Amino acid sequence: MSDHQITEEQVRAKAAEIQEHIDRWNRTEGLQAPEKPDVEAMARRLLERQGRPALSGPALLDAVRPQWERKAQAEGLTGEAAEAFVQEHLSEDYPQVYCETETVLLVVTYYFIHLNKAAAEMVVSDTETVLQALEVAAVALPEIDELLSPISAFFRAEATTIQAVAYSNDNGQVQLVGIYPSPFFIAESDDMDWDLGDKIDDIIHHIGEGR
Prior knowledge:
Layout: H1 8-26, H2 39-50, H3 57-64, H4 67-74, H5 79-93, E1 97-104, E2 108-115, H6 117-122, H7 127-138, H8 142-146, H9 148-157, H10 159-167, E3 174-180, E4 185-189, H11 196-207
Antiparallel strand pairs: 1-2, 2-3, 3-4
């Protein structure tokens, strides 16, 4: 956390903004936020997170590089052999999170948070590890990064539900679907192909020079 001092006035203003998002979400047909979320706690965590320095390009690349890629390098594997080794282990053995957005008719922006099988299995037993992966994945997408703290709070509250949805899917994967700017999402089965190499390139591409 940074040394930036957060005032109660800032917390109340941010809490009012989050509450407005919740009210807008509740007015969306078929979607309801949990009863009486602690918006002031969400607001305080969001402000604290915004006060932390952004990850640099090299630090982000190191954070998203899977452990199996490092192991392949340590064993001297290169080219197709290294790629085959990583893909053999990546989808099931290492928790991965990937984020994307989609804007419909230039009005509604949906966001998608994909969890691979390993991440979905850890949402209850090791929630913080999954949320750390989410924090890295969200850097490239300001819509999700902006809401990361309240999304994380809702994630903790819904961890059991998220895991149940993942277990109901043959491949054990789950995606969290929300509508920007609401921090509340719906957990759904997911069939994304976890070819993370291209996704890492996308993340680094969106960092921008000088961050």
